[in-house]
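To start, an entry.
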Amino acid sequence: MKRLIKKPLVIVSILFLSIFTLISCSSSDDSSSEEMEEEEEIIDCTSDIVLDTSRGACDESLSFTSQFAMQIVGSNRVITANSIPEHNVGLFGRVSGSLNPNAISEQNESYTITMNPIDTGSLIATLGIRGPQYRFGVLLNGVELDPVAAEPFPHEGIMSPNVNWEWNLEAINVQIGLDCNSAHVQPTGQYHYHGKPTLYLESLNTSSTEMTLIGYAADGFPVYYKYAYSDASDSSSAVEMMTSSYQLKSGDRPGNGVTAPCGEYTGVYSADYEYVDGLGTLDEANGRTGVTPEYPRGTFYYVLTDEFPSIPRYFRGTPSSDFGFLG
């Protein structure tokens, strides 16, 4: 009887262990399978956004006359302009071969900028977590510097419920219909620069041996093209090309391709770049403090560079509300 009792118990035990093992293996396999699928999703994640720094031709002359005026009113600099440049532009409007469907039209712009800007010790970004906050400034031809493109991930439009402004396309590195001046047109008809304004700079005969004032930022600090004194505090020192302290990140973006982009850092997103203190001659706001021909006692000034970020993305001072975006 003892043998008859023990035998079934062993069989039951073996059956139980076998079933448990099968269930455990099945669960483990499913888990591994899910992890592999997730890994494959990230590894295989690709983007159809490609690096493209090409520009359209500037073969069009405008029938409008450029209007620009600057005067000092109390402690403010007041600039009025119609946003029409004197140089040639690209083909815009609803015509065959246009770079952008928006036609250029005269604007009625007025900017009040402080004459006594103060470095607040902190940075204010042109792009916020809810979208563009400020245009950066205005050149001495009355055309705005507006570096931020409203092209957030996942590129379904700015009203998308999945919009992620942390990953916004970099205007100077993707194809958004820019002409040779790195400019295009708003739906309002306003012509504006996203990067180096080539023909405007040529009209100023900018030189590599002197500093050239080209405009003012929204916070009141001056903007120069890429050359400045090698010794920031000595106007008798040689003039040299200023360099950005931003570099392209290495490796892959941390996103999963659904809530944020993945793939290799290529420069198609502004966030593909990182600031490295001391890498170049300019700070995080693409500027420095020193003397200039117009400010012999010294001031903070911004520098427009050929390489990223080209137009600065941060303010050292408090920007005028005249450069802010509504909403």
